Target: Protein EARLY FLOWERING 4 domain-containing protein
Amino acid sequence: MESTTSVKTSEESRAAPAQEANRHSWEAFNQDCFEVQKILDENKLLIAEINQNHESRMPENLTRNVALIQELKNNVNRVAGLYSDLSSTFVNFMKGEVKQKSGTITFQKPSAMLGQKRTRAD
Model:
């Protein structure tokens, strides 16, 4: 039987931190997506309850709607913040390659893209 050994090249060794950073970025992006969906599902239930209370026209239900609408407003603000985070994470992830310098990971634009402008077809 032949035994095979795996030897990492210096290029593979340098690529490992970038791949790890990409994996962490993707996990953070994915987690934020799940959080957004959870809040949106909660909002759907809140809206249904608010509508039901409104249709009942009972004073205690209408009073309860004040708190429910406030909760809905807070959820919408949380979703807006999460979308902002998602946008930043996605842009940084797609903008360029991940480089590791002195133990910290930073996102940098690939040198081939520097100075290029996007053109739009008319």
The chain has a mean pLDDT of 76. Residues 10-56 form the longest helix (47 residues). The beta strands are 97-101, 104-108. The longest strand covers residues 97-101.
